[in-house]
Amino acid sequence: MMKKALTFAIFLLMLSSCQDFLNIEPQDQISKNQALSTLDGMDAAVIGVYSTLGVNDYYRQYFTAYPELAGNMQPNPAAAGSDGVVGNQSSIITTFREGNFFTIGSGYDDNNFDDFYAVLYNLLNQANNIIEALEAFESDQEARRNSLLGEALALRAIAHFDLLRLYAQPYRFTEDGSHPGVVLAERPFEVTERPARRTVAEGYTLIESDLLRAVELLGPNARRTTDRIWLTPLIARGLLARAFAYQSNWAGVIEQTTAVINAAQVTLLNPDDYVDTWTEQQFNPEVLWYLDLQRFRNADPGSASLIASIARVIGAPSDVENPPFCTVTQDLLNRFEEGDIRRELYQEIEGQVYCSKYALQPNSISNFPMLRLSEIYLLRAEAYAELGQDALAQADYNLIHQRAVADAIPTTLTGTELQDEIFEERRRELALEGHLLFDLKRTGRSVERDDCLPANPNCDLAYPDYRFALPIPQSALNANPNLIQNQGY
Fold first, then answer.
1. What's the rounded Cα separation, in Å, for the pair 57 and 48?
2. For helices 115-136 and 142-167, what crossing angle results, to 10°?
3. Which residues lie across from 372 on neighbouring strands?
4. What is the percent of the chain where pLDDT is above 90?
């Protein structure tokens, strides 16, 4: 992958072009002012922001893979070539090796994770240009205008949330979240601006504000098709519940998750259909929000190319000659008890184990589940347990666990034992969906692994540690003297 040459000052000014996405005309040949002068133009621009969520350096591949390297997967010796995982110097193998070894430096030499920074601030600038235009726009179609504004605000909240997850220590790192967070993009930046990092607490305040506004503003106009690929008020509530969990705002988690559950707009996947729904890449009825990735298919239906995606990283391959870059660890597999249907999602092929939640097939890509009802129940179970409401926590936990293990005895655990078991259930249920490292750090847990490659110098990583946050890319520091690097780098 060719490395981006964008500096911090440049990418904050960009308004990324909208791709051909669900047959909406792209806006790459007209100016920003023209694109944002009509509701149709702003609608296309919002779709362009959705499109940015799906780029290779964000949810389609690297961002989803990064947190799973903390214990659920590791570089695949079968994919590294004759030089092995350590000797291979290709940027892809280097990226996953350094992520798994916790050896990423601020220069990100040949490491593709440095592109997170540019992609996320590019998305923020896209969203902010739209928000600014919509807030000044007068229209007799107020409902449509408001819905577009709600989408842009929610998308801005997602980007800020992900920046904090990547580049800041967790909220609980200090008592009041007063430690360094990230640069907050609340509006389009001027070319001469060199903004400093704000605190983690300030970041979450903005995220909460944006998502609450989105809940109020989002309407049926956001559903351009019947597919579950567009933001809705319930999705915004689910995202807010997740953000509240990162702040240990347990009352807020319960309020938002209960609203989602009581709305009864989606249902949990039936245990009889659980495995086939994943392995056959079928529509999953419990997914509140899918990220539409179908535009990345090759226009030639006969193409034999493998699309860059999370399936290319860890999916079950149809061709053993082109194995995924990573393999599932025994640390994950050992967490499934006998009879757990979720264990069937992991296949051993040529001595390595891969995940059949994602199918690695030529010119094939599945939409990515951004938010599932299972997570909503587990977030509420976690919140109840943290507040000492053990019976309610047990009920939500049992709902998810007994679906997976038909003869499981209802849990009677309480206190910290119940909290730990809910964490383990979350790890089993949401494995390889982009959560593990973020969940470990937000709950103050250490990285503890038994299955590590022999050359890994950091099989375990005790919390707290500076490596629970990525370094700010050196290119951004060079462009902005007001930025400070994370301690330890």
1. 16
2. 160
3. 287
4. 85
Q: Considering the entire predicted model, what is its pTM?
A: 0.93
pLDDT, residue 11, reads 36
Spatial separation of the C-alpha atoms in residues 58 and 120, rounded to whole Å: 8
The structure tokens 């086939």 sit at: 276
How many Cβ atoms from other residues are within 10 Å of residue 302's Cβ? 7
Give the count of beta carbons closer than 10 Å to the beta carbon of residue 23: 6
DSSP-derived secondary structure for 417-473: HHHHHHHHHHHHHTTTSS-HHHHHHHTTPPB--S---TT-TTS-BPSS-GGGSPPPP
Kindly give, in sequence order, each residue whose CB lies less than 8 Å from that of residue 142, ignoring residues fewer than 6 positions away. none
Cα separation, 25 vs 121, whole angstroms: 24
**Cα dihedral: 211, 217, 221, 226 (round 10):** 40
Cα end-to-end distance, the chain, whole Å: 25
Q: Is 49 helix (H, G, I), strand (E, B) or coil?
A: helix
pLDDT per position as a tens digit, 212-262: 999 999 988 788 999 999 999 999 999 999 999 999 999 999 999 999 999
Burial class (CB in 10 A: 0-12, 13-18, 19+), 149: buried
**Residues 354, 317 contacting (CB under 8 angstroms):** yes
Dmax over CA atoms of the chain, in Å, equals 65
Residue 86 confidence (pLDDT) above 90: no
Bridge partners for 359 per DSSP: 316
Q: At what angle do helices 250-263 and 373-386 cross, to 10 degrees?
A: 140
* Environment class of 334 (CB within 10 Å of its CB; exposed 0-12, middle 13-18, buried 19+): exposed
